[in-house]
Amino acid sequence: MNFQDYYLDHELFFHKNCDMPPHPTKYGMHAHEIYELYYLLSGKGVFTVEGNPYELKPNSMMIMRSNEAHYVQMDSDLPYERIVLHFYPQFLDPIDPNRTLLAPFDNRGLGINNYYPAGSFSNQLVRSCFNNILEIKENDYQKRVAIITNFLTILNELNKSFHNKDPQLLFTDQNSKMTEVISYINEHLYEQISIETICNQFYISKSQLNNLFKKATNTTVWKYIVSKRLVSARHLLYDGVPANEACMKCGFKDYSTFYRRYREYFGTSPQNDVNKF
Protein backbone atom coordinates (compact mmCIF):
# COMPACT_ATOMS: atom_id res chain seq x y z
CA MET A 1 0.00 0.00 0.00
CA ASN A 2 1.32 3.43 -0.95
CA PHE A 3 1.49 5.33 2.36
CA GLN A 4 2.08 9.09 2.22
CA ASP A 5 1.71 9.32 6.00
CA TYR A 6 1.68 6.58 8.59
CA TYR A 7 1.34 6.11 12.35
CA LEU A 8 0.67 2.86 14.22
CA ASP A 9 0.50 1.90 17.88
CA HIS A 10 -1.53 -0.58 19.96
CA GLU A 11 -4.68 1.60 19.86
CA LEU A 12 -4.45 3.75 16.71
CA PHE A 13 -3.59 3.32 13.04
CA PHE A 14 -3.55 6.53 11.01
CA HIS A 15 -2.56 6.67 7.35
CA LYS A 16 -2.87 8.75 4.20
CA ASN A 17 -2.74 6.98 0.83
CA CYS A 18 -2.90 7.88 -2.83
CA ASP A 19 -3.34 5.35 -5.65
CA MET A 20 -2.97 6.55 -9.23
CA PRO A 21 -4.89 4.88 -10.75
CA PRO A 22 -6.85 2.88 -8.16
CA HIS A 23 -6.69 -0.87 -8.66
CA PRO A 24 -10.09 -2.32 -9.70
CA THR A 25 -9.91 -5.31 -7.29
CA LYS A 26 -7.61 -4.05 -4.53
CA TYR A 27 -10.25 -2.89 -2.04
CA GLY A 28 -12.35 -6.03 -1.54
CA MET A 29 -14.86 -6.82 1.17
CA HIS A 30 -13.40 -7.07 4.65
CA ALA A 31 -14.31 -6.62 8.29
CA HIS A 32 -12.10 -5.91 11.28
CA GLU A 33 -12.33 -5.65 15.05
CA ILE A 34 -11.44 -1.95 15.15
CA TYR A 35 -13.47 1.15 14.30
CA GLU A 36 -12.73 3.14 11.15
CA LEU A 37 -13.03 6.79 10.13
CA TYR A 38 -12.47 7.31 6.39
CA TYR A 39 -12.14 10.70 4.64
CA LEU A 40 -11.99 10.95 0.85
CA LEU A 41 -9.65 13.65 -0.45
CA SER A 42 -9.92 12.96 -4.18
CA GLY A 43 -11.54 10.47 -6.51
CA LYS A 44 -15.06 9.12 -6.72
CA GLY A 45 -16.69 5.74 -6.38
CA VAL A 46 -19.10 3.63 -4.37
CA PHE A 47 -18.46 2.56 -0.78
CA THR A 48 -20.63 -0.39 0.26
CA VAL A 49 -21.26 -1.29 3.91
CA GLU A 50 -23.21 -4.46 4.73
CA GLY A 51 -24.77 -4.42 1.25
CA ASN A 52 -25.77 -0.73 1.35
CA PRO A 53 -24.01 1.38 -1.33
CA TYR A 54 -23.02 5.00 -0.73
CA GLU A 55 -21.83 7.27 -3.52
CA LEU A 56 -18.43 8.69 -2.60
CA LYS A 57 -17.38 12.23 -3.48
CA PRO A 58 -14.40 14.29 -2.28
CA ASN A 59 -14.58 15.74 1.23
CA SER A 60 -17.05 13.09 2.40
CA MET A 61 -16.60 10.75 5.37
CA MET A 62 -17.45 7.12 6.04
CA ILE A 63 -17.60 5.55 9.50
CA MET A 64 -17.61 1.85 10.38
CA ARG A 65 -17.77 0.20 13.77
CA SER A 66 -16.29 -3.17 14.64
CA ASN A 67 -17.27 -6.04 12.33
CA GLU A 68 -19.17 -3.96 9.76
CA ALA A 69 -18.24 -5.57 6.45
CA HIS A 70 -17.36 -3.07 3.74
CA TYR A 71 -15.61 -2.56 0.42
CA VAL A 72 -15.03 0.25 -2.06
CA GLN A 73 -15.06 0.47 -5.87
CA MET A 74 -13.32 3.57 -7.23
CA ASP A 75 -13.35 5.27 -10.62
CA SER A 76 -10.18 4.01 -12.28
CA ASP A 77 -9.72 7.24 -14.25
CA LEU A 78 -9.15 9.43 -11.18
CA PRO A 79 -6.47 9.48 -8.46
CA TYR A 80 -7.76 7.87 -5.27
CA GLU A 81 -6.54 9.80 -2.21
CA ARG A 82 -7.86 9.27 1.32
CA ILE A 83 -7.10 9.57 5.01
CA VAL A 84 -8.05 6.69 7.32
CA LEU A 85 -7.99 6.35 11.09
CA HIS A 86 -8.52 2.93 12.66
CA PHE A 87 -8.97 2.90 16.42
CA TYR A 88 -10.00 0.76 19.35
CA PRO A 89 -12.92 2.49 21.11
CA GLN A 90 -11.39 1.75 24.52
CA PHE A 91 -8.76 4.42 23.98
CA LEU A 92 -11.48 7.06 24.48
CA ASP A 93 -12.66 5.66 27.82
CA PRO A 94 -10.44 7.87 30.05
CA ILE A 95 -11.85 10.94 28.25
CA ASP A 96 -15.39 9.79 27.52
CA PRO A 97 -16.24 6.73 29.68
CA ASN A 98 -19.88 6.75 28.50
CA ARG A 99 -18.71 6.80 24.86
CA THR A 100 -21.14 9.56 23.94
CA LEU A 101 -18.76 10.71 21.20
CA LEU A 102 -19.11 7.30 19.53
CA ALA A 103 -22.89 7.62 19.10
CA PRO A 104 -22.59 8.00 15.29
CA PHE A 105 -20.74 4.66 15.22
CA ASP A 106 -22.78 2.72 17.77
CA ASN A 107 -26.35 4.10 17.84
CA ARG A 108 -27.57 2.97 14.43
CA GLY A 109 -28.42 -0.14 12.47
CA LEU A 110 -25.87 -2.31 10.71
CA GLY A 111 -24.75 -0.66 7.47
CA ILE A 112 -27.03 2.37 8.03
CA ASN A 113 -25.95 6.03 8.37
CA ASN A 114 -22.32 5.27 7.57
CA TYR A 115 -21.98 8.18 5.13
CA TYR A 116 -21.46 11.88 5.84
CA PRO A 117 -21.28 13.96 2.64
CA ALA A 118 -19.51 17.27 2.28
CA GLY A 119 -21.82 19.90 3.73
CA SER A 120 -23.10 17.75 6.58
CA PHE A 121 -20.17 18.91 8.73
CA SER A 122 -17.67 21.77 8.78
CA ASN A 123 -15.29 20.60 6.08
CA GLN A 124 -12.91 23.49 6.74
CA LEU A 125 -12.58 22.44 10.37
CA VAL A 126 -12.16 18.74 9.58
CA ARG A 127 -9.53 19.41 6.89
CA SER A 128 -7.69 21.65 9.35
CA CYS A 129 -7.70 18.81 11.91
CA PHE A 130 -6.25 16.34 9.42
CA ASN A 131 -3.63 18.88 8.31
CA ASN A 132 -2.60 19.35 11.95
CA ILE A 133 -1.96 15.61 12.17
CA LEU A 134 -0.12 15.44 8.85
CA GLU A 135 2.24 18.25 9.85
CA ILE A 136 3.85 16.03 12.53
CA LYS A 137 6.39 13.87 10.72
CA GLU A 138 9.05 12.35 12.95
CA ASN A 139 8.04 12.52 16.62
CA ASP A 140 5.74 9.58 17.46
CA TYR A 141 4.70 11.03 20.82
CA GLN A 142 3.66 14.34 19.25
CA LYS A 143 1.98 12.47 16.39
CA ARG A 144 -0.16 10.47 18.81
CA VAL A 145 -1.11 13.60 20.76
CA ALA A 146 -2.04 15.37 17.51
CA ILE A 147 -4.17 12.41 16.37
CA ILE A 148 -6.07 12.21 19.66
CA THR A 149 -6.70 15.93 20.12
CA ASN A 150 -7.78 16.54 16.53
CA PHE A 151 -9.81 13.33 16.38
CA LEU A 152 -11.90 14.57 19.32
CA THR A 153 -12.79 17.68 17.32
CA ILE A 154 -13.77 15.56 14.31
CA LEU A 155 -15.91 13.31 16.51
CA ASN A 156 -17.67 16.38 17.87
CA GLU A 157 -18.47 17.48 14.30
CA LEU A 158 -19.84 14.03 13.47
CA ASN A 159 -22.05 14.11 16.57
CA LYS A 160 -23.53 17.47 15.59
CA SER A 161 -24.52 16.03 12.22
CA PHE A 162 -25.71 12.72 13.68
CA HIS A 163 -27.99 14.39 16.24
CA ASN A 164 -29.21 17.06 13.84
CA LYS A 165 -31.91 14.74 12.43
CA ASP A 166 -31.99 16.69 9.20
CA PRO A 167 -33.70 14.30 6.71
CA GLN A 168 -31.13 15.24 4.04
CA LEU A 169 -28.34 14.05 6.33
CA LEU A 170 -29.89 10.76 7.37
CA PHE A 171 -28.68 7.96 5.16
CA THR A 172 -31.03 5.00 5.29
CA ASP A 173 -30.56 1.49 4.00
CA GLN A 174 -31.76 0.32 0.62
CA ASN A 175 -34.63 -1.86 1.96
CA SER A 176 -33.54 -4.57 -0.43
CA LYS A 177 -33.84 -8.32 -0.11
CA MET A 178 -30.11 -8.51 0.57
CA THR A 179 -30.41 -6.01 3.44
CA GLU A 180 -32.89 -8.41 5.04
CA VAL A 181 -30.61 -11.39 4.34
CA ILE A 182 -27.59 -9.65 5.87
CA SER A 183 -29.60 -8.71 8.96
CA TYR A 184 -30.80 -12.31 9.30
CA ILE A 185 -27.25 -13.67 9.00
CA ASN A 186 -25.98 -11.31 11.69
CA GLU A 187 -28.85 -12.22 14.02
CA HIS A 188 -27.99 -15.92 13.68
CA LEU A 189 -24.25 -15.57 13.07
CA TYR A 190 -23.09 -17.97 15.79
CA GLU A 191 -25.72 -20.62 15.15
CA GLN A 192 -25.35 -23.52 12.71
CA ILE A 193 -26.58 -21.38 9.85
CA SER A 194 -26.32 -22.68 6.28
CA ILE A 195 -27.06 -21.62 2.72
CA GLU A 196 -30.10 -23.88 2.84
CA THR A 197 -31.56 -22.27 5.95
CA ILE A 198 -31.14 -18.80 4.45
CA CYS A 199 -32.76 -19.86 1.19
CA ASN A 200 -35.69 -21.41 3.05
CA GLN A 201 -36.12 -18.30 5.18
CA PHE A 202 -36.35 -15.97 2.17
CA TYR A 203 -37.86 -18.34 -0.42
CA ILE A 204 -35.06 -17.95 -2.93
CA SER A 205 -32.86 -20.48 -4.71
CA LYS A 206 -29.18 -21.02 -3.96
CA SER A 207 -28.16 -19.49 -7.28
CA GLN A 208 -30.34 -16.42 -6.65
CA LEU A 209 -28.91 -16.00 -3.16
CA ASN A 210 -25.32 -16.36 -4.30
CA ASN A 211 -25.72 -13.99 -7.25
CA LEU A 212 -27.57 -11.28 -5.31
CA PHE A 213 -25.29 -11.55 -2.29
CA LYS A 214 -22.13 -11.32 -4.38
CA LYS A 215 -23.52 -8.27 -6.15
CA ALA A 216 -24.39 -6.57 -2.84
CA THR A 217 -21.26 -7.42 -0.84
CA ASN A 218 -18.57 -8.35 -3.37
CA THR A 219 -18.06 -11.68 -1.62
CA THR A 220 -19.78 -15.03 -1.11
CA VAL A 221 -22.25 -15.82 1.66
CA TRP A 222 -19.94 -18.27 3.36
CA LYS A 223 -16.85 -16.05 3.20
CA TYR A 224 -18.94 -13.27 4.73
CA ILE A 225 -20.09 -15.50 7.59
CA VAL A 226 -16.61 -16.85 8.30
CA SER A 227 -14.97 -13.41 8.28
CA LYS A 228 -17.55 -12.00 10.72
CA ARG A 229 -17.14 -15.00 13.04
CA LEU A 230 -13.36 -14.63 13.00
CA VAL A 231 -13.49 -10.93 13.89
CA SER A 232 -15.89 -11.72 16.75
CA ALA A 233 -13.57 -14.48 17.97
CA ARG A 234 -10.63 -12.07 17.95
CA HIS A 235 -12.66 -9.70 20.11
CA LEU A 236 -13.20 -12.49 22.63
CA LEU A 237 -9.50 -13.38 22.64
CA TYR A 238 -8.63 -9.75 23.39
CA ASP A 239 -11.12 -9.88 26.28
CA GLY A 240 -9.32 -12.87 27.78
CA VAL A 241 -11.57 -15.68 26.55
CA PRO A 242 -9.59 -18.92 25.89
CA ALA A 243 -9.14 -19.77 22.21
CA ASN A 244 -11.12 -23.03 22.42
CA GLU A 245 -14.05 -21.24 24.03
CA ALA A 246 -13.92 -18.35 21.54
CA CYS A 247 -13.95 -20.90 18.73
CA MET A 248 -17.15 -22.56 19.98
CA LYS A 249 -18.88 -19.31 20.96
CA CYS A 250 -18.45 -17.94 17.45
CA GLY A 251 -19.99 -20.86 15.59
CA PHE A 252 -16.99 -22.98 14.57
CA LYS A 253 -17.53 -26.72 14.95
CA ASP A 254 -13.91 -27.70 15.64
CA TYR A 255 -10.73 -25.95 16.72
CA SER A 256 -8.56 -27.14 13.82
CA THR A 257 -10.85 -25.47 11.28
CA PHE A 258 -10.99 -22.33 13.39
CA TYR A 259 -7.20 -22.25 13.77
CA ARG A 260 -6.61 -22.64 10.04
CA ARG A 261 -9.18 -19.98 9.11
CA TYR A 262 -7.83 -17.61 11.74
CA ARG A 263 -4.28 -17.83 10.39
CA GLU A 264 -5.50 -17.35 6.82
CA TYR A 265 -7.53 -14.26 7.69
CA PHE A 266 -5.31 -12.47 10.21
CA GLY A 267 -1.88 -13.80 9.26
CA THR A 268 -1.20 -14.94 12.81
CA SER A 269 -2.37 -17.62 15.23
CA PRO A 270 -4.97 -17.20 17.98
CA GLN A 271 -2.29 -17.81 20.61
CA ASN A 272 -0.07 -15.08 19.21
CA ASP A 273 -2.95 -12.62 19.52
CA VAL A 274 -3.58 -13.76 23.09
CA ASN A 275 0.09 -13.22 23.96
CA LYS A 276 0.09 -9.80 22.30
CA PHE A 277 -2.69 -8.58 24.55
UniProtKB/TrEMBL annotation:
Any matching Pfam family: AraC_binding
Record SMART domains: HTH_ARAC (SM00342)
Xref: Gene3D superfamilies: Homeodomain-like, Jelly Rolls
Keywords from the named record: DNA-binding, Transcription, Transcription regulation
InterPro entries membership: AraC-bd, Homeodomain-like_sf, HTH-like, HTH_AraC, RmlC-like_jellyroll
SUPFAM superfamilies, alphabetized: Homeodomain-like, Regulatory protein AraC
Boundaries of every HTH araC/xylS-type domain copy: 179-276
MF (Gene Ontology): DNA-binding transcription factor activity; sequence-specific DNA binding
Matches recorded under PANTHER family: ARAC-FAMILY TRANSCRIPTIONAL REGULATOR
Name assigned to this protein: AraC-type DNA-binding protein
